[in-house]
Amino acid sequence: MTAPGALVQLTPPRRSVECQIDGETVSAPEGTTILDACRKKGKDLPTLCYLETLHPVNACRVCVVEVENSRVLVPSCSRKVEPGMVVHTDTPRVRHSRKMVLELLASSVDLSTTPHATEWLADYACHPERFGPPAPAAAAGVRDAAQAGHHAAPDPDYAATVHQPTKVDNNLYIRDYGKCILCYKCVEACGTDYQNTFAIAVAGRGFDARISTEFSVPLPGSACVYCGNCIAVCPTGALMFSSEHDLRAAGTWDESRQSVVDTICPYCGVGCTLSLHVQDNAIVKVTSPFDVSITRGNLCIKGRFGWQYVQERPGAGTGRGQMKGAPLAASEAAADGPGGAGRQQQQHGNGRGSVPRDDGAPGTRAPG
Predict the structure, then answer these.
(1) Which residue has the higher pLDDT, 305 or 309?
(2) What is the pTM (predicted TM-score) of this model?
(3) Rg (Cα) of the chain, in Å, rounded?
């Protein structure tokens, strides 16, 4: 029941649109995408570049469907349903297109940390090895120096790849562009969709296209404010918390042993929801739900990375992406909501720290 005097936001009603999806009549509000209409009916189409909190860019093409009387396959993540539209989501033409896209991606990009990639490759009978063995990884900086319009002849004995050394130039997160599929989601999150920092963009053309800072400078020298919102939207693990990267490298990352505890960020009064991912009684990373209206999955540097004070304990070692301190159960800090975490903050400091420069010089105060 609405409280007396409360403001009620009125929105104009949207008319319903009837269409057919795989032979089933579907009614959806006008403006609904084919993908949303399919999901409401329990049909889960594969997607990589789509996220409900970002504008669709139609880059990955794995969500394409066949629409009768349409010359080409259409991206379901952006195409709106229309009256009388007849959609087919699993025809031989659709499956062949998805198979080709997945094969080309798997032959050139490391999909080992991409959710569902293994099952998609199996479902569509993909054989990326038919393009040949993967080319050797490029040396550090080679792809960053590629100039548009200047291409070397491809080696016919290898399948071209984007493999390159992982970029580790700060203690908060790493960039493994050997896993990048150029979905543009990180660029959107850093740009006009949310952060408006514009620290990264797409550089180069063709197979040399890549995500880059201005003039390929290391992150500490770029416009990056370390909000980590690019990590939150990355679908392949190309952008990853340093803590997660280190645990994976040590072979100890195990999501089956992890729990997630929600709490409220104690740093300011906005009230952002933090989802603390806990493994072996230690926080290993922090995310925020996409369906919470306050954050829509976005955080600042303090919310995303400023949780080290919860685990700070005298005498414990210091690791990259983690300040000194023994592990503390996330439930202990989150039990009393922001107050519980706030008491830890008062006792052990605010955990903001600094972002060290890539050359080893003293770091500067991280932007708040």
Answers:
(1) 305
(2) 0.82
(3) 23
